[in-house]
Amino acid sequence: xxxxxxxxxxxxxxxxxxxxxxxxxxxxxxxxxxxxxxxxxxxxxxxxxxxxxxxxxxxxxxxxxxxxxxxxxxxxxxxxxxxxxxxxxxxxxxxxxxxxxxxxxxxxxxxxxxxxxxxxxxxxxxxxxxxxxxxxxxxxxxxxxxxxxxxxxxxxxxxxxxxxxxxxxxxxxxxxxxxxxxx
Length: 183
Fold this sequence. Notes:
Blueprint: H1 3-61, H2 67-76, H3 81-103, H4 106-110, H5 112-147, H6 151-157
Helix pairs in contact: 1-2, 1-3, 1-5, 2-3
């Protein structure tokens, strides 16, 4: 075989390999985007549940705070994964504070509306946790693909950046603590 033929075959193989790796990166990146979309849908379901909670509590405790404003802001602020996780954790803390207020009203806790809310909240929080785990799994897979050698060279060539993991504290992960003794 001639040296030019060998060189052409080597260049063609390298080109095919680059295309293969690029397509693998694109697939992983799209799976990651789809997974975050699932997280976003689950979080929006939680946002839809909160106005009902506020209305339920308002009747008993005259409590609203600025929770509805925060729900509106979270719905409209499509930010990056890191800042979104921080906003969600702050929002979770607000929900926990409402639940602490609710603890002070036994009639409220026994009401059908509150029981239904609690059931829905648990279901939505499980959905968020599952969606978050799936997203973080796709993030891990994508990051591994672009960090491996020689994939990392191709990823840098196409300006691929690592994806961020999504961490959010869930309302149902730990119960709000109520201090009855007043310490």
